[in-house]
Automatic annotation (TrEMBL):
Belongs to the peptidase M50B family. The keyword Transcription regulation does not apply. This is Peptidase. Residues 398-457 form the CBS domain. It comes from the Bacteria.
Length: 521
């Protein structure tokens, strides 16, 4: 199954000192208090770059001390007042930081045998701080790197070795009844079957990957794990037709593999090692295809159902809701129905009496599969809501007004200028007014008030890199992509002309993100 958007949707699985904590699924968040932005229509003339500037929003004294932050003021240095989305005092530390998001589309969840994916979740915070949009993980990661077909890294998760051992043990027991003459060698044959089966799962995932690349959708990685594989597609399909194709190619390839194994089976003697292996691979690929075609998220069939509803209604959100609730109903059906079908012998085995280890194992397997489907469906709904609210994140509205100061300016003087101007950020500039670095808010809080007259702002600043310059016109997912590319606590926001507009705090983006997620769809 593919995991688009995010993983597949804002999914789940998931850098430096100045980066924000990673987030994988958009889980529950605890927003801090926010005030409504204020505005000011006055437009005083710009002042010298080394002095205080006219703020882009309501003016007033700012307390640069440790205290709960609310929202801030937006604006460019030395320009007219503007309404803002943030209002908190600049003295609050942003907390630990580290990048985080692999963006995700609208299907989510874990994959079942052969795939099924969750969309990569938006950035999440650490310690229950909630989603953090500007984060991403340090590279794909996710286990043992096996190769890069089509330029996409393929990882084997540690859980795969557990399921490989389980398959080896279970299939070895079956070989003991079918081919008793193998003796202990049956476990080598079983191990080969486990590897061949997951090679088939990899082909299933590569089908999703090739289709995604054909549609110019970036694929972060493929991961083989306990219950199959996941193709983490980082953007959502633009049309329902492409969504349908992207979901269908995986089960289609599994059916093709089952057909090829069947044709190969006709050429060998039944009851031999090759015959048993080919029969097992044929059946397992049929199961993978059938399971993934079930019409509920996060399975491929759920994404196909979503595409159909999307096409009919013209609303991807409606498609996600329908497929997610079908997925939840499917989870309940698996939880109750799978053990009953197994006990009754309807799945091809002998009828069994209730009780005993077989009953317990059947119930456990059903519970695990049901949990995977239910969780994936829920993640799909959360990620769909996230994508619906992403356009509300606009760099211009979230930017704090900033005061330019030269490198040797004492911190106390810089803060005085900021308070006089109603600004909440400091930009260190050279003698010509060119920005050099940004004074870190968390560093200001760490300096006691009595030491601030003897501390130069340059000692508290982070040097500007190209990635820390953000266009004031960015919004939504495009803004998050830029922030993820260069994780930091603050960014310099500039106009298209290169003029400084203000400073964007990752903490303000996070608060706006949490606030948007809390609003009903």
């Amino acid at each position: 199954m593919d995991e688009s958007g995010g993983s597949g949707q804002p999914r789940s699985g998931t850098d430096g000192a100045t980066e924000h904590p990673a987030v994988p699924d958009a889980t529950s968040a605890h927003p801090r208090s926010d005030r409504e932005p204020a505005g000011d229509d006055s437009r005083p003339a710009p002042t010298d770059s080394t002095d205080t500037t006219a703020p882009n929003g309501p003016t007033g004294t700012v307390a640069w001390e440790k205290q709960p932050s609310s929202a801030g003021h937006s604006g460019r240095t030395g320009d007219a007042a503007r309404p803002s989305a943030a209002d908190a005092p600049a003295g609050q530390p942003d907390g630990p930081t580290e990048p985080a998001v692999a963006r995700r589309g609208e299907g989510t969840g874990s994959s079942g045998p052969g795939g099924g994916g969750s969309d990569a979740p938006p950035p999440a915070g650490d310690g229950g701080s909630g989603p953090r949009p500007p984060q991403r993980v340090k590279g794909p990661g996710g286990g043992l790197l096996m190769g890069r077909p089509f330029g996409v890294p393929v990882y084997v998760a540690p859980s795969w070795f557990l399921v490989a051992a389980l398959i080896t043990w279970v299939f070895g027991g079956q070989l003991e009844r079918v081919l008793p003459e193998l003796g202990g060698a049956r476990y080598l044959v079983s191990l080969f079957f486990a590897v061949a089966f997951y090679a088939s799962v990899l082909v299933h995932e590569l089908a999703h990957t090739v289709a995604a690349l054909r549609f110019k959708l970036p694929v972060r990685r493929i991961q083989l794990q306990f219950f199959g594989g996941v193709s983490e597609i980082e953007k959502e399909s633009e049309t329902p037709g492409r969504e349908f194709i992207l979901a269908f190619v995986g089960p289609l390839l599994s059916l093709v593999l089952a057909g090829l194994f069947y044709l190969a089976l006709l050429t060998v003697e039944p009851g031999t090692v090759p015959g048993v292996l080919l029969a097992g691979l044929m059946v397992s690929n049929l199961i993978v295809a059938a399971f993934n075609l079930l019409p509920g998220l996060p399975l491929d069939g759920g994404r196909m159902l979503r595409a159909v509803v999307w096409k009919i209604t013209g609303k991807p959100m409606t498609g996600t809701i329908a497929a997610a609730w079908v997925g939840r109903a499917l989870a309940i059906s698996v939880l109750i129905g799978l053990p009953l079908l197994t006990q009754s012998g309807a799945l091809g085995g002998e009828a069994q009496e209730l009780g005993g280890m077989d009953t317990v194992m059947d119930a456990l397997l059903a519970a695990i599969l049901a949990a995977i489907i239910w969780t994936g469906a829920g993640n799909s709904l959360r990620m769909a809501r996230l994508r619906e609210h992403l356009p509300e994140l606009r760099a211009r509205a979230l930017t704090r007004r900033a005061v330019p100061v030269e490198t040797d300016t004492p911190l106390s003087e810089a803060l005085r200028r900021a308070n006089d101007a109603g600004a909440r950020a400091l930009v260190v500039v050279d003698a010509h007014g060119e920005p050099l670095s940004l004074v870190r808010e968390a560093a200001i809080v760490g300096v006691p008030a009595h030491r601030r007259p003897w501390v130069a702002v340059s000692g508290l600043a982070q040097e500007l890199t190209d990635g820390m310059r953000v266009s004031a016109e960015l919004a939504g997912e495009e803004l998050l992509d830029v922030l993820r590319a260069t994780p930091a606590t603050e960014y310099l926001v500039v106009e298209e002309s290169g003029e400084i507009y203000g400073v964007l705090s990752a903490a303000d983006v996070e608060r706006a993100f949490v606030k948007a997620m809390a609003r009903p769809s």
